[in-house]
Amino acid sequence: MELSQDISLKDYSTMHLGGNADYFIIASSAEHLIEIVNWAQQNHIQTLMVGEGSNILWRDEGFRGLVIQNKIKGLQIEDQADYAILKSGSGEIWDDVVEKSTELNLSGIECLSLIPGTAGATPVQNVGAYGQDIGSVLYELDAYDLKNKKVVTLSPEDCQFSYRQSIFKTEPNRFYIMSISLKLSKQQLHPPFYKTLSDYLETEAVNDYSPQSLRDAVIAIRTKKLPNPKDYYNLGSFFGNPIINNDQVNKIRNNTKINPPVWKIDNQKSKISAAWLIEQAGFKNYHDQNTGMATWKNQPLVLVNELARSTQDVLTFKEQICQKVFDMFEVQLQMEPQLLP
Ligand SMILES: Cc1cc2nc3c(=O)[nH]c(=O)nc-3n(C[C@H](O)[C@H](O)[C@H](O)COP(=O)(O)OP(=O)(O)OC[C@H]3O[C@@H](n4cnc5c(N)ncnc54)[C@H](O)[C@@H]3O)c2cc1C
User: Fold this and answer.
1) CATH assignment of the domain containing 206
2) Among 99, 279, 306, 336, which one carries the catalytic annotation?
3) Angle subtended by helix axes 195-203 and 211-225, to nearest 10
4) What's the predicted TM-score (pTM) here?
5) How far is CA 62 from the centre of its chain?
6) Contact (Cβ atoms closer than 8 angstroms) between residue 134 and residue 143
7) H or E element: which one contains 41?
8) Is residue 162 annotated as a catalytic residue, yes or no?
9) Which of 288, 181, 303 is nearest to 236 (CA)?
10) For this structure, is 336 an active site residue?
11) Residues 158, 124: one domain?
């Protein structure tokens, strides 16, 4: 095994914080991954599989084990009459997969353009944006099951997808995803689209609704709204939109005399905008001298590491926001990125 030892995990998180890992290795193929996992199990070394680190906050204590970075490549297309199956190695860069799909005029993932990270990480938190999510287009995926020590093929039902959730989060570190297969449509696209997207299309007078034109629109919106993690260290949305009872929505409406941005789930529950809650709690474009952390000027859901010295600084700032939101609205914000290990 060609292992690196005692490496800084800062380089494996787009927040650029965290302690050291005892060991590190790159998995270059599915066979290589299995070989690494078998070796680690035989030697009683704990493992963790990561992609590009765009959804990971490493603890300051680091990781007493082996971090495996996924570089399993490969793209294949299986063409059918009105759809195609796009199979991607899990270590492909996700946006390259989206770009390929729009070049082929296939739809289903064009609104997931410009999301950082690898293809294999997308099922983990059921990645979603602008009305699309990976759970809706996943055909199947291949993974190594560390519990039963064998390769398995999982269907979308097996993955137990819900909003930013999947079996990969409820049973962490059990499956290492090796490839994903997506069922993408050849059908002509029609409105309605997600509100932010349709507003943009209207303003820019775009009316040829193709996977490519929607991808271009999403890229333009995201570039304006979100910081590039290469220039401003961040993990995208730091909080999910909380799901709350409709009674609670009414209470917030009555107390604030404002209609909060909500998306109805059913007669009992709605999803409320975490960005709105954070802004109302006074954290719009907020720069905290104490922790060196800030909220991004165009999107308060994004926490930016300006001058933080440690992961503890991020957690302190996060707590400050959660506490204020809870005190004002009795709503508990949940952190979206994974705090590892
Ligand atoms: C600027 C920015 C914008 C973002 N926008 C969005 C957005 O719009 N929507 C959204 O949903 N997310 C968004 N994200 C979050 C992030 O990009 C996604 O969660 C992405 O899928 C993470 O990919 P990664 O390769 O970086 O995974 P990592 O951060 O490396 O890993 C994330 C988790 O997945 C696990 N994991 C990684 N690869 C595998 C594998 N092959 N098998 C099993 N487990 C694995 C890791 O152990 C870890 O628990 C954004 C992040 C940033 C920085």
Assistant:
1) 3.30.465.10
2) 336
3) 100
4) 0.95
5) 22
6) no
7) helix 30-42
8) no
9) 303
10) yes
11) yes
The Cα 10–Cα 27 span in angstroms is 19
Number of domains in the chain: 3
Q: What is the tens place of the pLDDT at every residue in 97-111? A: 999 999 999 999 999
* 336 and 266 in a common domain: yes
Residues in contact with 9: Cβ distance below 8 Å, sequence separation at least 6, in sequence order: 18, 19, 20, 21, 58, 62, 63, 67
State which of 29, 51, 70 marks the end of a domain.
70
How large is the average pLDDT for residues 227-247?
A: 96
First to last CA, the chain: 22
Instruction: Name residues contacting ligand 1 (CB within 6 A).
Output: 14, 48-56, 70, 90, 115-118, 120-122, 124-125, 127-129, 168, 175-177, 226, 229, 234-236, 338
Q: In this structure, are 155 and 32 located in the same domain?
A: no
305-327 core/surface letters (b: 16 or more CB in 10 A; e: else): beebeebebbbebbebbbebbee
Of 59, 71, 96, 124, best ligand 1 pocket probe by most atoms within 8 Å of the beta carbon: 124
Distance 178 CA to ligand 1 centre (A): 15
pLDDT, mean of residues 154-169: 96
Q: Whose CA is closest to 83, among 98, 99, 100, 105?
A: 105
Structural domain containing residue 154? 75-225
Give the pLDDT of residue 1.
Answer: 77
Question: In a 3-state reduction of DSSP, which class is residue 90?
Answer: coil
Identify the active-site residue in 8, 29, 164, 279. 164
Same domain, yes or no, for 160 and 239? Answer: no
- Cis peptide before 123, with omega less than 30 degrees from 0? no
Q: Check: CB of residue 211 under 8 Å from CB of residue 110.
A: yes
- Determine the average pLDDT of the residues in 277-296: 97
- The reply to whether 31 belongs to the active site is no
> What is the C-alpha to C-alpha distance for residues 304 and 307, in angstroms, rounded to an integer?
9
Give the pLDDT score at 69. 98
Residue 165 scores a pLDDT above 90: yes
Could you tell me whether strands 47-50 and 63-70 are parallel, antiparallel, or unpaired per DSSP bridges? parallel
**Cα–Cα dist 39/23, whole Å:** 13
